[in-house]
Amino acid sequence: MSENEVTKISVTGSRVEENYDVLVGHNLLGQIPDILGQRTRRILVIHPRALRSTGELVMEDLRKVGFETFSAEIPDAEEGKHIQVAAFCWQVLGQNDFTRSDAIISVGGGAVTDVAGFVAATWLRGIRIIHIPTTLLAMVDAAVGGKTGINTAEGKNLVGSFHAPAAVLCEIGTLRTLPEYELLTGMAEVIKCGFISDTKILDLVEENPEKLRDSQSNVIRELIERAIKVKADIVSEDFKEAGRREFLNYGHTFGHAIEYNERYQWRHGAAVSVGMVFAAELAAAAGNLDESVVARTRALCDLVGLPTSYRGDQWSKLLEAMRRDKKSRGALLRFVVLDDIAKPRIMEVPDDSILFATYLEIAAN
Ligand SMILES: NC(=O)c1ccc[n+]([C@@H]2O[C@H](COP(=O)([O-])OP(=O)(O)OC[C@H]3O[C@@H](n4cnc5c(N)ncnc54)[C@H](O)[C@@H]3O)[C@@H](O)[C@H]2O)c1
Ligand SMILES: O=C(O)C(=O)C[C@@H](O)[C@H](O)[C@H](O)COP(=O)(O)O
Ligand SMILES: [Zn+2]
Questions:
Q1: Cβ of 269 below 6 Å from ligand 1
Q2: Minimum-distance ligand to the CA of 334?
Q3: Domain containing residue 298
Q4: Is residue 197 within 8 Å of residue 235, measured between CB atoms?
Q5: Residue 20: in which H helix or E strand, if any?
Q6: Keywords in UniProt for this one (predicted)?
Q7: DSSP-based three-state secondary structure for 147
Q8: Residue 48 has pLDDT above 80, yes or no
């Protein structure tokens, strides 16, 4: 594929507002006027400080084609996924008379697309948002499926809504400034898509370890597109997570508990990496997954430089956090597990003892 080619991956939900395109490539901002249409006058660009200059470039481009622009600079990473940050954005929208024909653009990683998406979902009960994800993780996952959310004192992503974006513009060039560790944590969600659906992703990662640190490589581009296709396909079928969408939560029950327990000092992708090893060990302990898949999970995460173990003295706190997972039903914990690669299913765990035994498998000494 030539570097300048733009790839379009469509999400095709059952309702009109659940249909949108994810574009991957370079120089995509020119698409914005067509996506928003002629009635849009005002655009709020939400970004963290680290993306200030990118946000300014986006606003400059928008002004040139006649939009009135405003910006909301928000705290970095998980600090941004807070109700007070949403309230600050609502204030900017209110003070500048944003109407239902106006729009928001998010510029940043998954934390920004999550909170900006939540602001868009709630302002006037819903206005349009275009995501410009600037991390690998946000390109392949956070910006794509219309899940928006903020954290509360009790847990991760406990408040949010489903609100599809008008479009997602994955400008590959924005990854040039992304620190290497952030690129690699994004690989956790890419590998997740490999385990739940597209085996070729796992082969590509294993065969090209040296390319994984080069955000502009053809391998990263192919991984981005394959992971987006996995997510777009699932979201098209089950936008509001009534069934198959739960598979996108592979590795997240334990992963979110780590993030919460670490007060968000661990990156999401790093926590999901340990969570995938936990889920693989759980399925193996239940006698449903071959040990070779557990070993492959550990080897892939190791290859990418992602963690595969966690502190061994935190069980009761982790279990308490996992009870608040959205897949729980009453006292019943539910995990996404694999019967094999690309064969995910839900496992209901009525008894904590198998979970504790699994915890011992991933506990660091
Ligand atoms: N809604 C969903 O479906 C979904 C899916 C996956 C993850 N998430 C959420 O996404 C968040 C994790 O996203 P993330 O890993 O992108 O982390 P992040 O948004 O915290 O960004 C990581 C860091 O990279 C910096 N950064 C971002 N882009 C940059 C760039 N181009 N150059 C330099 N620095 C840059 C950010 O400022 C931040 O410090 C979590 O909150 C997770 O819950 C949501
Ligand atoms: O899109 C989904 O659905 C996912 O589960 C994708 C996950 O990677 C993502 O981290 C999501 O935010 C987790 O959602 P939650 O419902 O467990 O909060
Ligand atoms: Zn995730």
A1: yes
A2: 2
A3: 181-208+239-364
A4: no
A5: strand 19-25
A6: Amino-acid biosynthesis, Aromatic amino acid biosynthesis, Cobalt, Cytoplasm, Lyase, Metal-binding, NAD, Nucleotide-binding, Zinc
A7: strand
A8: yes
> Which residue out of 171, 182, 189, 246 is catalytically annotated?
189
**Residue 347 is part of a domain; what is its CATH number?**
1.20.1090.10
Name 169's Cβ contacts closer than 8 Å, sequence gap at least 6. Answer: 23, 28, 29, 31, 32, 130, 131, 132
Q: How many CB atoms within 10 Å of residue 360?
A: 10
Here the ipTM equals 0.99
* pLDDT tens for each residue of 114-136: 999 999 999 999 999 999 999 99
Three-state DSSP state, 103: strand
- The 10s digit of each residue's pLDDT in 324-333 is 999 999 999 9
241 is catalytic: yes
Is 282 within the bounds of a domain? yes
Predicted TM-score (pTM) of the model is 0.98
Burial of 319 (0-12, 13-18, 19+ CB in 10 A): middle
Q: Is 229 an annotated catalytic residue? A: no
Cα angle, residue 295 at apex, residues 291 and 296 outer, rounded to 5°: 115
Count of the separate structural domains present in the chain: 2
Whether residue 2 lies inside any domain: the answer is no
Look at the alpha carbons of 284, 289, 295, 296 in this order and tell me if their dihedral is positive or negative: negative
> Residues 174, 306: one domain?
no
Residues 283 and 354 in one domain: yes
Q: Is 228 domain-assigned? A: no
What string of DSSP letters covers 328-356?
A: -BTTBEEEEEEEETTEEEEEEE--THHHH
Same domain? 166 vs 252: no
